[in-house]
Every structure is written in C-alpha cells, then in structure tokens.
Amino acid sequence: MKPLPESFYTRDTVIVARELLGKRLVRQEGASRVSGIILETEAYRGEEDLACHCRAGRTPRTEVMYGPAGRAYVYFIYGMYWLLNIVTEGEGSPGAVLIRAIKPLEGLETIARRRAGQPAAKWTDGPGKLTRALNIDGSLNGISICQPGGPLYISEGAAIPPGAIQAGPRIGLDGVPEPWRSKAWRFVVN
DNA sequence: AGCACGATTAACT
DNA sequence: GTTAATCGTGCTC
C-alpha cells in the first residue's frame, strides 16, 4: 500500500483527525514491518488553541508544526513517553493530529515483545503505548510520512461507517481554559 | 540558572 | 481512586 499524499494532510486539522480513523499506520524498519488500524485521534490546531503546544508560538519544539503537512511531530512527555502526531494545514499555519490508539495488524510478535508483560488488549490502546509498540521516538521527528519506502507512513485501511465514529473532548487537558478544554476534537471508532 | 509541570502509563490500595 | 517514574520545555529570576 502506498502512503497517503501530502494533500490529504494539507487540510483543516479537525477534518484530518476524523478521516484518519480506519487508515493504516505503518512502521517499516528494514525488512521488519509493524502496522495497525488507527482507532483514536485528537486535533490540535493553531496558536489560539490553548491545549496545543503551538500556543507558545514558534520554538525549537513546535517548529515542525509550522512546516509543511504530512510530517511527523514526535515529542517527549512525562520523562518517559514519546507521542506521535501528524502535521496538518499549510506552511505557517500550525496544527497536528495526535494518534492515540491503533488496532495491531502486522508484526504481532514484534509488538508482543515490545509490550512484554501486557495483555494484547493493552498493547496499543494509548498514545505512549503505541509508540513503544512501533518503536517510534524523537529520531523520527520532522520526517515526511508521504515517502514510499520510508520508515513511517499512513495508507488506506478499513472503511469506517460514519455511525461508528464518536466525537468528544480531548483527554488530559486538566487546567486548560474553556472553550478549548471542551472542544469535541477527539475522535474514536466504536 | 532554577523551577514547575505535562496531549501518560503501570502498579498500587 | 492514588501515585511514582523521569526529563525536556518554556517561563521567571
């Protein structure tokens, strides 16, 4: 399967977040491939969104979100977890979609090894968990995810009926002022 | 130069 | 429900 084109990501962040559900996230490391179907996403858009890192403006950390769409924004949090985002919108217009959960499809043995001690249901059901399972870290920050043969990309996957998509507030925003805290910018497949 | 805290997780009680 | 783990980032002094 070939990667989705950059034009898929050069759109409104909330639209991209919703449409990424059901797509296939692929991690290619040499001959080893691990992939899964995206089941949960969140949109973070604009300097005015007080939940988005780009509320701080252009900094070394947020720079990638100001660049072209279709790049990976990978950041480190709580001293131990990497979180994967996909950059959206046009250049100079910051935004990204956080990938929060996937359903494992390929590379199950690799995932089981990286998530040793955990039941299969909890292998990739959180943003910090799936980056562990897919071996995603800061070395992938800023790379294009639109390159065939690249280490990380997203391709077509499973069709999701509109009725199976649920929207709600984003997770972990205690302390973020309204209206941003309650924006229904989290999307989940039932 | 110092400091408070975070788009989390796993292991507790 | 509570909490430790663990450190880069952005803000204040």
Characterise this structure.
This protein is α+β, with helices and mostly antiparallel strands and 190 residues long. Helices cover 15% and strands 30% of the residues. Strands 1, 2, 3, 4, 5, 6, 7 and 8 form an eight-stranded antiparallel sheet that branches. The longest helix is centred in the N-terminal third of the chain and has 7 residues, at 13-19. It is globular and about 40 Å long. The protein binds a DNA duplex (13 and 13 nucleotides) through strand 3, strand 4 and helix 5.
State the main characteristics.
190 residues; alpha+beta; 3-methyladenine DNA Glycosylase, Chain A; 8-stranded antiparallel sheet; 8 strands; 15% helix; 30% strand; globular; DNA-binding
Note the beta-strand portion.
25-35%
Summing up helix and strand content along with how strands pair, one would put the structural category as alpha+beta
Largest sheet: 8 strands, antiparallel
Amino- and carboxy-terminal Cα gap: 25 Å
Uncertain residue segments = none
At the fourth level of CATH, the homologous superfamily is Methylpurine-DNA glycosylase (MPG)
| CATH class call | Alpha Beta
Rg is 15 Å
Our count of helices gives 5
Count the beta strands.
Answer: 8
Q: What is CATH's topology name?
A: 3-methyladenine DNA Glycosylase, Chain A
| CATH architectural grouping | Roll
Secondary-structure element order, as H and E?
A: HHEEHEEEHHEEE
Helical residue percent band: 10-25%
State the domain count: 1
The global form is globular
